[in-house]
């Protein structure tokens, strides 16, 4: 006996799909007892189409929900006196295959226990991409289909099996079951009612099957935002998310409800962060609004749970095996991070790919380009990953370079200090406090702001478990591998820009390795110049981002502006001279553009992005730059970071890439300069090499100007920081030499082969010599910083700023100098503050009086200034020691070395003089900085459309 089936088709403004859907319904090979069409206030010709096709059409208002429309359809069947065994529910954008209903009925006959059956859903109009083969829901409310994103139908899932729920687009359900369960929940007007219904059906003991032989093509018009209804409005994602949360809370077991409430609240915050990272701020707000809407009306959930408890025969344990596994949300999180990283790393080479494709079109028909790295990947597509790695000499050498770099950086593991690197503070809280304080209890107290690099270092230390030492080690250890990665990506894109064949992997290997060793060969790494090490690793990434200014699309150029601005701000936080150089290069580029392409200067989308990138840096670093100028510490804007004295560099040092007295042998750097000069010979790449030399010329001119600047600080006189300029100059030489090698590879002149052989040998000596020198060097960062202060005094000073130690060095004949130690001493971040703090004339007068004509009042004022101990490190000047021995109020204290003398202030200690006023300007700037950083990071991230995968 053929079962009776009534089709129930719900429509709303579906005129563009209905003709095909109507044809699909009419073409069914299984007979239909009746067809009921319900139109919910369509404004197009949907009612007319339905009326012509099926006769009677039930017209209801546009505010009618999908559950109500289905309910009205069932009422119409009862009014007609029709009691079909099955109800086949269809959407106006769901076109059934001719055999869909027959396949569903055949499965129902084969599985008499089944009460709900659903078809395989494929995407319309692509027809081949799978959408759903049954659905379930995860513990975070995500709609789970069990399919890969974009998976095509190749018969890989063609087995009838049990599922939690099936989509209402094509759902075949027993009429009695639909009526017994009360139909679909009115609290789910358009989304999520299928999962809720399936969950309730499973709890009631009903079986839901997916029938892959039945195929329905679904356009998903409401989900994709193709059409809007009064029920979805403009915020489709809000409706979907609210439905998911409601479904979970209404159906979850009671024992899990408290945990689920907390999990969904916390998960919503994480989802919001994820949406912000892909620049979907609207969906992030929709997520929050959905959570607040549901949590502010708990009565809705309580009522729904009561209804489900009162359902006859309901047992929530029956549905548990059909829910998504607990680990699925974590897998999705990893997938999201992978997608984000892939999108961020792949977008920047778009311009090179287009340039390469355009050049290939212009190439002679007989030209066959040699395989590049990607071509090798395609050729080896069917081989295993390990086999491809082991048979790729370049990959093996890259791995070897990274391993050797990690071995050479062994000194940086653990807590390091020495040379120009101050010790890291004990906890990350010290860095955060230094960042937000407007007055620092250092020395005699200072309002000089914390250096800008404290913020990124504090963030890194927080991510690494709150250990500043781990953050410093991570920077020093990862600098070379990170620089290698960035240089490889940058040189690969540049190679494709200058020659459509691109650079060979051997050129990329040489250029990336050499560039990554610039900070090491210069001596910055071994001397602990953290700022220069960070900039060296960051430079290729910054140059890579700057290539986005050449994008043909204005939108991409503006996105490049935010990325360049953020990277430039991070680099300038560690080495402020970098921004000065960027501004100088920007002026040169604008001037050249005004002369060569005058019309381009009038286009704001051409000069606007570079200008915005430059202007963004002062905004992001305003909490340091503006207060520094205000507190007469503007010298910090032109100094290298680190302990004084900072290394210098003359003309030969700049060419050789070596800081004065530091670094690898000077001839390695000069070889690099010679290679950059020889890179001018190949004609094919002469213009881009000339561009590199223009950058080098601007850098050299700026270095000459800054070389004439000297700053008189309280402790010593120092020259303006040349370190960044030295790094940029060497990086420019590497790029020029790499481009020249690419050009040499396409030259056809007779002497090319001989010259290539000589240059390969000479060039290989640069990175090899740098690595060998690094392995055998003795870095200063492993030596530590010696102190002549007894341990018990150091421990006392850590109890509070009022337990300071006055350290007096020198002698009466050559002159005396003093420093004040508080807490755990001058740590990383505090050294710049103390370096730029002007001399306290009043306290200097007190110290002068102490060592010449001390009085009890002078000692009392020391105590009031928070000085507990006075120390004369070895060799202590006898005349000064005799004066202090005879001073009333000073008690001799023990010292670890006989030649070191120490005294304790015998009187009350007071740290109140170390307290200073709050700078509300800096507080406002810190707030602005925090907001600006979040906004810029979001603008930098790639834009994705998570709508398809977020269901």
TrEMBL record:
<keyword id="KW-0808">Transferase</keyword>
<feature type="transmembrane region" description="Helical">
    <location>
        <begin position="562"/>
        <end position="595"/>
    </location>
</feature>
<keyword id="KW-0472">Membrane</keyword>
<protein>
    <submittedName>
        <fullName>GT2 family glycosyltransferase</fullName>
    </submittedName>
</protein>
<dbReference type="Pfam" id="PF13641">
    <property type="entry name" value="Glyco_tranf_2_3"/>
</dbReference>
<feature type="transmembrane region" description="Helical">
    <location>
        <begin position="664"/>
        <end position="682"/>
    </location>
</feature>
<dbReference type="GO" id="GO:0016740">
    <property type="term" value="F:transferase activity"/>
</dbReference>
<feature type="transmembrane region" description="Helical">
    <location>
        <begin position="497"/>
        <end position="518"/>
    </location>
</feature>
<feature type="transmembrane region" description="Helical">
    <location>
        <begin position="471"/>
        <end position="491"/>
    </location>
</feature>
<keyword id="KW-1133">Transmembrane helix</keyword>
<feature type="transmembrane region" description="Helical">
    <location>
        <begin position="723"/>
        <end position="742"/>
    </location>
</feature>
<feature type="transmembrane region" description="Helical">
    <location>
        <begin position="442"/>
        <end position="464"/>
    </location>
</feature>
<dbReference type="InterPro" id="IPR050834">
    <property type="entry name" value="Glycosyltransf_2"/>
</dbReference>
<feature type="transmembrane region" description="Helical">
    <location>
        <begin position="920"/>
        <end position="941"/>
    </location>
</feature>
<dbReference type="InterPro" id="IPR029044">
    <property type="entry name" value="Nucleotide-diphossugar_trans"/>
</dbReference>
<feature type="transmembrane region" description="Helical">
    <location>
        <begin position="689"/>
        <end position="711"/>
    </location>
</feature>
<feature type="transmembrane region" description="Helical">
    <location>
        <begin position="754"/>
        <end position="775"/>
    </location>
</feature>
<feature type="transmembrane region" description="Helical">
    <location>
        <begin position="530"/>
        <end position="550"/>
    </location>
</feature>
<keyword id="KW-0812">Transmembrane</keyword>
<feature type="transmembrane region" description="Helical">
    <location>
        <begin position="257"/>
        <end position="278"/>
    </location>
</feature>
<feature type="transmembrane region" description="Helical">
    <location>
        <begin position="607"/>
        <end position="626"/>
    </location>
</feature>
<feature type="transmembrane region" description="Helical">
    <location>
        <begin position="394"/>
        <end position="413"/>
    </location>
</feature>
């Amino acid at each position: 006996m053929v079962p009776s089936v009534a089709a129930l088709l719900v429509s709303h403004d579906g005129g563009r799909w209905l003709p095909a859907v109507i044809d699909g319904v009419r073409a069914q090979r299984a007979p239909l007892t009746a067809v009921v069409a319900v139109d919910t206030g369509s404004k197009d010709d949907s009612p007319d189409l339905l009326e012509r096709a099926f006769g009677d059409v039930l017209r209801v208002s546009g505010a009618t929900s999908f559950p109500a429309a289905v309910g009205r359809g069932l009422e119409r069947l009862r009014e007609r006196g029709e009691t079909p065994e099955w109800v086949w529910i269809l959407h106006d954008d769901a076109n059934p295959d001719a055999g869909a209903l027959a396949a569903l009925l055949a499965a129902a006959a084969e599985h008499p226990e089944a009460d709900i059956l659903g078809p395989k859903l494929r995407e319309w109009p692509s027809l081949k991409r799978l959408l759903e083969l049954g659905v379930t829901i995860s513990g975070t409310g995500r709609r789970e289909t069990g399919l890969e994103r974009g998976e095509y139908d190749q018969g890989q899932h063609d087995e009838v099996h049990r599922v939690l729920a099936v989509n209402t687009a094509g759902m075949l359900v027993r009429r009695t079951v639909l009526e017994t369960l009360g139909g679909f929940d009115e609290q789910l007007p358009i989304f999520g009612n299928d999962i809720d219904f399936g969950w309730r059906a499973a709890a009631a003991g009903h079986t839901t099957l997916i029938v892959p032989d039945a195929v329905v093509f679904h356009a998903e018009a409401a989900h994709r935002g193709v059409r809007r209804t009064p029920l979805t409005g403009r915020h489709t994602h809000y409706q979907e998310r609210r439905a998911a949360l409601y479904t979970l809370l209404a159906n979850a077991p009671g024992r899990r409800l408290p945990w689920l409430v907390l999990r969904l609240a916390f998960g919503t915050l994480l989802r919001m962060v994820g949406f912000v990272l892909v620049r979907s701020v609207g969906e992030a707000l929709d997520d929050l609004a959905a959570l607040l809407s549901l949590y502010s009306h708990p009565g809705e959930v309580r009522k729904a749970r009561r209804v489900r408890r009162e359902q006859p025969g309901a047992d929530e344990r029956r549905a548990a095996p059909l829910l998504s596994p607990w680990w699925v949300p974590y897998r999705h999180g990893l997938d999201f991070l992978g997608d984000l990283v892939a999108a961020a790393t792949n977008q920047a080479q778009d311009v090179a790919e287009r340039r390469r494709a355009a050049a290939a079109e212009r190439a002679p028909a007989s030209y066959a380009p040699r395989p590049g790295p990607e071509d090798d990947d395609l050729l080896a597509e069917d081989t295993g990953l390990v086999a491809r790695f082991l048979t790729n000499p370049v990959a093996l050498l890259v791995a070897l370079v990274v391993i050797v770099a990690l071995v050479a950086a062994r000194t940086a593991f653990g807590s390091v200090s020495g040379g120009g690197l101050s010790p890291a503070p004990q906890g990350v809280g010290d860095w955060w406090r230094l960042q937000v304080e407007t007055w620092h209890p250092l020395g005699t107290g200072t309002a000089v702001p914390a250096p800008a690099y404290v913020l990124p270092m504090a963030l890194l230390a927080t991510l690494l478990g709150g250990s500043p030492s781990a953050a410093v080690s991570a920077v020093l250890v990862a600098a070379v591998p990170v620089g290698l990665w960035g240089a490889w990506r940058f040189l690969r894109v540049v190679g494709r820009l200058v020659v459509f064949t691109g650079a060979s992997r051997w050129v990329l290997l040489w250029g990336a390795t050499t560039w990554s060793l610039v900070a090491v060969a210069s001596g910055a790494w071994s001397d602990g110049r953290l700022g220069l090490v960070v900039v060296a690793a960051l430079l290729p990434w910054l140059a890579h981002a700057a290539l986005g200014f050449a994008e043909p699309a204005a939108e991409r150029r503006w996105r490049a502006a935010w990325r360049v601005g953020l990277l430039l701000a991070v680099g300038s936080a560690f080495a402020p001279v970098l921004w000065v150089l960027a501004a100088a290069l920007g002026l040169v580029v604008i001037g050249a553009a005004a002369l060569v392409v005058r019309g381009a200067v009038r286009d704001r989308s051409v000069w606007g992005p570079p200008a915005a990138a430059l202007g963004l840096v002062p905004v992001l670093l305003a909490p340091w730059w503006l207060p520094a100028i205000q507190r007469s510490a503007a010298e910090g804007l032109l100094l290298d970071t680190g302990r004084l004295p900072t290394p210098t560099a003359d003309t030969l040092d700049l060419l050789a890439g070596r800081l004065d007295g530091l670094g690898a042998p000077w001839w390695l750097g000069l070889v690099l300069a010679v290679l950059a000069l020889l890179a001018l010979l190949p004609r094919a790449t002469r213009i881009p090499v000339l561009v590199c030399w223009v950058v080098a010329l601007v850098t050299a001119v700026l270095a000459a100007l800054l070389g004439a600047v000297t700053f008189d600080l309280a402790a010593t006189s120092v020259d303006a920081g040349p370190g960044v300029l030295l790094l940029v100059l060497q990086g420019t030489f590497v790029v020029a030499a790499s481009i020249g090698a690419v050009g040499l590879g396409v030259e056809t002149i007779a002497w090319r082969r001989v010259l290539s052989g000589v240059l390969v040998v000479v060039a290989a000596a640069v990175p090899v010599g740098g690595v060998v020198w690094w392995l055998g060097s003795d870095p200063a960062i492993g030596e530590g910083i010696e102190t002549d202060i007894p341990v018990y005094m150091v421990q006392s000073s850590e109890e509070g700023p009022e337990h300071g130690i006055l350290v007096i060095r020198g002698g009466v004949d050559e002159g005396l100098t003093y420093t004040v130690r508080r807490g755990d001493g001058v740590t990383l971040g505090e050294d710049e503050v103390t370096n730029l703090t002007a001399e306290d004339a009043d306290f200097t007068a007190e110290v002068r009086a102490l060592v010449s004509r001390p009085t009890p009042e002078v000692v009392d004022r020391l105590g009031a200034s928070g000085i507990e101990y006075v120390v004369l490190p070895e060799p202590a000047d006898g005349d000064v020691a005799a004066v202090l021995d005879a001073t009333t109020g000073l008690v001799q204290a023990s010292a670890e070395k006989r030649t070191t003398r120490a005294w304790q202030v015998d009187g009350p200690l007071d740290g109140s003089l170390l307290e200073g006023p709050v700078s509300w300007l800096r507080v406002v700037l810190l707030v602005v900085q925090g907001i600006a950083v979040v906004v810029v990071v979001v603008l930098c991230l790639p834009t994705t459309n998570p709508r398809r995968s977020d269901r």
